[in-house]
Design brief:
The complex is a heterotrimer. Chain A is mainly α. Chain A has helices at about 5-45, 50-65, 70-90, 95-120, 125-130, 135-145, 150-165, 180-210. The chains are: A mainly alpha, B mainly alpha, C alpha/beta. At the A-B interface, helix 1, helix 3, helix 4, helix 5 and helix 6 of A face helix 1, helix 2, helix 3, helix 5 and helix 6 of B.
C-alpha cells in the first residue's frame, strides 16, 4: 500500500510541532518548578524540609548526569556555612549551632533549583519563555543585547589590550590597588560606553528603516525551523 | 515600562544591562569580596538614568539585567536573580521620583546609591529571616552587607557624575537631557 | 513624477555652526544610479539619512516623496546593523514588522538571498560570514521588502576587491529591474558604467562631477636607495617569523608560512590579504594578544611576544582606532602614553605641530571626524617613537587627505628607524612600501622576494 507522501509530510510536521511545543512548555514548567522549590525552601516548616532535600537531591543528580559543574555553587555554600555558623557561635554559643545549620540548608535549597534550571535549559529557550510576558519592543531589546554579547566581550577585551599597550595602569597586578580602578573605568569602560551609545543609535536606525514598530501586529519568522 | 522609551534609549538600556552582567561574571572570579556587585549595579543604573534621563529606566535596566543573567546563568542562576537585580533598581527609581532635582547631581547619586544598597541588603535580610535565622544574626549580617555594599555603591556613585560629564562634553548625550555641571 | 525630489534643503547639526547642507537640490528616478562624492565629514551620510527619513534633527526645505516610495539603506559598517543571529531571521526582520504572514516569509527570504548572490543556508549564523557576505546580507535584508530606492554608504571602503565585484553584479541587475540607487562613494570607478549621475557635495550643494582633492603624492619611497642602505648597514632585525602553521586551536589552518620572514629597523612592510584571511590575527599574535593560537615561533624585539613586556617599544593600532580615545582633549589624549611611560610631554605638541593639527589640541577627540580621530590615535602612538609599529588596515575608511597624513607619519617613523608592519585588504604598490607580504590561497609569503628573483631571471 502506498502512503501519500504529502500526508506523511503533514504528519511529520505536526509531530515536530508538538515536539517543539513540548520543549518550550517543558522549559516553562521547569521555570515554574524551580520557582516553587525556591520559595518553599523558605516557607516549609523544618519538619517537612526532608521532602525538599530529596527533591533537590534529584535535581542535583539530574544536573550531574548531564555533566554540569556544581563547584561554584558548592563554594558559595561553604562561604555561607562558615560565616553563618561563625556568627551563631559568637552570638548564641554551641547550643543553637544546629539551628544555624538549618538556616544555611534552607538558603542552599533556595539556590539549588536555580542552578538546576540554568544548567539543564538552553538559554534561548529560557529567553523564549521569559519574553512571553515582555512587550514587543523589550523582547527585541533582549534579543539584540544577547546577540551583541560576543561583540561586547570582544570589544571589552580589545580595548583593554590596546590601553594596556598604551601604558594604562590596568594590568591585573595594577588593578589589585583600588587607586587604579578609576583608570580602568576611564580607559576601558568609558570608550566601550561611547561605542555602545553610538551603536544603540545605529541599530535603532537600522531597525526603524526596516519598519520596526510600524505594524499593529508583528508576525514571527518561523523559528521552528532551527530544531529540524 | 511599555513602549514609552525611544528605541535607541531602550537599546542602550539593554546594552548596559548586558554589560553589567558580563562584567559581573568576569569579576566574580577575581574578587572574593561580597558587595562588589553593588558597585557595578549602582554604576550602570545611575549611568542609564544619566544617559536616558527618565524615571523608569533604572527599573527597566534592572529587570533586563535579571533576565539576561538568568539566560546566561550568571551568578546563582534561577528566578531569584531577577529579584537581586530588580529590587535595588525599583528602590532607586522610587527614590528618584521623590528627590529628582532637589539635590546636586553628586549628592543625588550618593543618596540613590545608598537606598539601592539598602534594598539589596534588605533582600538578604528578609531571606534570612524567612529561613529562620535569629534576629540578632540576621541583623548583624544585614549590617555587614549594607556596610560592604555601601562602600562600593558610594564609590560608584561618586564616579558616575564624572563619566556623565565626559560623555556630555563629547556631545554624546542628546540635547534634551539636562546639563551635568 | 520623480521617486523623490529635494528642493532647497538646509540642514545643520548646531544652530551656531555652518550648515552641512545648504540649498541642496536633487531628484531621483527609477533605474537611475547617483553617486555622490565629497570630503569626509561634508554631510554625505547625513544626506542619505535625510532621504531615508531617519534624520534625528529637523531640516528646512522641501522633500517630495512619491507615494509608492520605499527606501532601503545600507550603512557603512554592516556589523552595526545586524539585529539577529541567523541569516534567515535577519532578512525576515522587515517582513515581521510589515506583518507578512509567517508562511510566506521563507520564500521571500530565499528569493532575497539569491538576488544578492548569497548561496548559503538560511540557518547560517551571521557571525561566520565574511565582511563582504555581511554587506550583501544587509542588502538582502533591504531587498526583501522590495524598496524602489536603495541608498548605499561607501561600499568600496568596506569591501575587498572580490566583494566589490560581487556587489557590482547585484547592483547591475537591480538597476535593470528599475530600482533607483543613490550611493556615497569616493571611488566611483569601481562601479564604472553603472553610474548615471556623478555628483560632488561641496559647501552644502551638489555639483556635477567627481570630488578629487589635489594631494601631492610626495610619499613615494626611493626604493632602490632604501634597499641599498639596508643591505649595507645590515639593519637590526626587529621581528622574525619562522615557518609555522597559523591556526586557532581546534580549527582549520588559516594559512601556512613556509619561509622565515623578517622585518628590520627602518622598513615598512605591507601585509596584504582578503577580508578574513587572518591578517588581524597575525598582527595581534605578534603583539602577544591573540588568544587560542598556541605557541608560534615569533620573535619580536628578541622576545616571545606577550602583553605588557615591551613598554613603549611596541605599538599596535587596531581597526577603528577611534575606540581607544577617552581623554577630554586631543592634547591630553596624545600625552596619556607619554605620561605613563615617563617620556617628555612636549613631544605631543611637536607632533601636532608637524601634522599642522595644533588647531585641534583643545578639542574633544570625540567631536572630530572619523579621519581626524584616526590620525590622532596614530599620532598618539607615533610620539612614543616605538621600535616596532603594527597597524591593522590603517587606510580603511580614510579619504585621500587623511591617507596622506598617515603616510607622512609612517615615513617619518621609518626615518627614525621604526620597523613598521601594516595590513591592507587591497594590493599595495612597491613604490609605497619596502616589501609586501601576501596571504593568499592559504600561504603567507614574501612575494616581493620572488618577484625580484623573477626579474633577475
Amino acid at each position: 500500500m502506498r502512503v501519500n507522501p504529502l500526508r506523511r509530510l503533514a504528519v511529520g510536521k505536526r509531530r515536530r510541532f508538538l515536539g517543539r511545543l513540548n520543549k518550550t512548555h517543558y522549559c516553562a514548567l521547569a521555570l515554574l518548578l524551580s520557582l516553587l522549590l525556591s520559595t518553599s525552601a523558605f516557607l516549609l516548616p523544618s519538619s517537612a524540609l526532608w521532602i525538599l532535600v530529596a527533591l533537590n537531591g534529584g535535581l542535583v543528580v539530574h544536573g550531574l548526569l548531564l555533566k554540569k559543574k556544581i563547584s561554584a555553587l558548592l563554594k558559595i555554600a561553604t562561604v555561607q556555612l562558615v560565616t553563618t555558623m561563625g556568627l551563631y557561635y559568637l552570638f548564641h554559643g554551641e547550643s543553637q549551632l544546629l539551628e544555624g545549620a538549618v538556616v544555611v540548608l534552607r538558603v542552599l535549597l533556595a539556590m539549588l533549583p536555580g542552578w538546576w534550571l540554568s544548567s539543564t535549559q538552553p538559554p534561548e529557550r529560557l529567553g523564549e519563555v521569559l519574553s512571553w510576558g515582555l512587550p514587543h519592543q523589550w523582547a527585541f531589546v533582549v534579543a539584540a543585547s544577547l546577540s551583541l554579547l560576543p561583540f561586547m566581550s570582544r570589544e571589552l577585551k580589545e580595548i583593554y589590550q590596546i590601553q594596556c599597550m598604551r601604558g594604562a595602569r590596568i594590568t591585573p597586578k595594577a588593578l589589585r590597588n583600588p587607586k587604579n580602578w578609576p583608570e580602568f573605568i576611564y580607559c576601558v569602560l568609558l570608550p566601550l560606553l561611547i561605542q555602545l551609545l553610538k551603536l544603540s543609535k545605529q541599530m535603532a536606525i537600522s531597525a526603524k528603516l526596516r519598519h520596526f514598530g510600524n505594524a499593529a501586529k508583528a508576525t514571527h519568522w518561523p523559528s521552528t525551523r532551527d530544531s529540524e | 515600562m511599555k513602549s514609552h522609551f525611544e528605541l535607541e534609549d531602550a537599546l542602550f538600556i539593554g546594552f548596559c544591562a548586558t554589560l553589567l552582567v558580563v562584567l559581573k561574571s568576569m569579576l566574580r572570579l577575581k574578587l572574593g569580596l561580597s558587595g562588589h556587585s553593588m558597585f557595578l549595579m549602582t554604576f550602570f543604573y545611575l549611568l542609564c538614568y544619566g544617559a536616558v534621563g527618565r524615571v523608569g529606566c533604572i527599573t527597566a535596566c534592572g529587570l533586563l539585567a535579571g533576565i539576561v543573567a538568568m539566560m546566561l546563568s550568571v551568578g546563582k542562576g534561577g528566578p531569584l536573580i531577577l529579584l537581586k537585580f530588580g529590587l535595588p533598581a525599583v528602590a532607586m527609581d522610587l527614590t528618584l521620583l521623590m528627590i529628582a532635582g532637589v539635590f546636586k547631581l553628586r549628592w543625588q547619586c550618593v543618596i540613590v546609591a545608598l537606598i539601592g544598597c539598602l534594598a539589596w541588603a534588605s533582600k538578604g535580610w528578609v531571606e534570612n529571616m524567612l529561613a529562620g535565622m535569629t534576629h540578632q544574626i540576621a541583623l548583624t549580617k544585614f549590617a555587614l552587607n549594607f556596610l560592604q555594599g555601601g562602600v562600593f555603591a558610594i564609590g560608584a556613585a561618586l564616579i558616575v557624575p564624572t563619566v556623565l560629564r565626559r560623555l556630555q562634553s563629547h556631545d554624546l548625550l542628546q540635547d534634551h537631557h539636562k546639563q551635568y555641571k | 513624477m520623480n521617486l523623490i525630489e529635494l528642493k532647497g534643503i538646509h540642514f545643520g547639526y548646531d544652530t551656531h555652526q555652518v550648515a552641512i547642507l545648504d540649498d541642496l537640490h536633487l531628484s531621483v528616478n527609477h533605474g537611475e544610479c547617483h553617486c555622490i562624492s565629497g570630503a569626509t565629514g561634508c554631510g554625505k551620510s547625513s544626506l542619505l539619512h535625510l532621504i531615508a527619513g531617519e534624520l534625528s534633527r529637523p531640516f528646512e526645505g522641501e522633500m517630495i516623496r512619491h507615494p509608492a516610495l520605499m527606501v532601503g539603506l545600507v550603512m557603512q559598517d554592516p556589523n552595526v546593523q545586524v539585529l539577529r543571529q541567523s541569516v534567515g531571521a535577519e532578512i525576515a526582520f522587515a517582513l515581521e514588522n510589515l506583518g507578512t504572514p509567517s508562511v510566506k516569509m521563507l520564500e521571500k527570504v530565499q528569493q532575497a538571498l539569491r538576488r544578492v548572490g548569497l548561496y548559503i543556508s538560511i540557518d547560517t549564523p551571521v557571525d561566520v560570514l565574511s565582511l563582504g557576505q555581511k554587506y550583501r546580507l544587509m542588502l538582502a535584508a533591504q531587498l526583501v521588502f522590495e524598496p524602489n530606492l536603495l541608498l548605499l554608504d561607501e561600499p568600496w571602503t568596506q569591501l575587498d576587491n572580490h566583494g566589490v565585484q560581487e556587489l557590482y553584479f547585484v547592483l547591475k541587475s537591480l538597476l535593470s529591474d528599475g530600482v533607483a540607487i543613490v550611493m556615497v562613494e569616493h571611488h566611483p570607478q569601481a562601479f564604472g558604467t553603472l553610474i548615471s549621475h556623478l555628483w560632488q557635495l561641496e559647501q552644502g550643494k551638489l555639483v556635477a562631477g567627481l570630488y578629487l582633492p589635489s594631494v601631492p603624492r610626495e610619499h613615494k619611497l626611493n626604493v632602490t636607495a632604501a634597499k641599498a642602505t639596508t643591505s649595507e648597514s645590515c639593519a637590526e632585525e626587529r621581528v622574525r617569523i619562522s615557518p609555522h602553521r597559523f591556526q586557532f586551536t581546534g580549527r582549520e589552518t588559516l594559512f601556512r608560512c613556509a619561509n622565515t620572514l623578517s622585518l628590520a629597523a627602518g622598513e615598512i612592510v605591507a601585509l596584504v590579504g582578503d577580508n578574513g584571511s587572518g591578517k588581524s590575527s597575525l598582527l595581534k599574535a605578534l603583539a602577544g594578544i591573540q588568544a587560542d593560537i598556541g605557541q608560534l615561533p615569533f620573535s619580536v624585539l628578541g622576545k616571545r611576544p606577550k602583553l605588557g613586556i615591551y613598554g613603549p617599544n611596541l605599538s599596535l593600532l587596531l581597526q577603528r582606532p577611534n575606540r581607544q580615545l577617552f581623554e577630554q582633549t586631543v592634547l591630553t589624549e596624545m600625552q596619556f602614553s607619554l605620561r605613563r611611560f615617563k617620556l617628555p610631554l612636549t613631544r605631543a605638541e611637536q607632533m601636532l605641530a608637524q601634522l599642522s593639527l595644533m588647531g585641534l589640541a583643545a578639542a574633544s577627540p570625540h567631536k572630530l571626524s572619523y579621519g581626524q580621530q584616526h590620525i590622532i590615535a596614530l599620532a598618539s602612538l607615533a610620539c612614543l617613537t616605538p621600535k616596532v609599529l603594527l597597524l591593522d588596515d590603517p587606510f580603511a575608511g580614510l579619504d585621500s587627505v587623511h591617507c596622506e597624513k598617515v603616510w607622512q607619519l609612517l615615513l617619518q617613523l621609518r626615518q627614525q628607524g621604526c620597523a613598521i608592519l601594516l595590513s591592507s585588504h587591497r594590493e599595495m604598490s612597491l613604490d609605497d612600501v619596502d616589501r609586501v607580504w601576501h596571504i593568499e590561497s592559504g600561504f603567507l609569503l614574501d612575494r616581493s622576494e620572488s618577484m625580484e628573483q623573477s626579474y633577475a631571471g
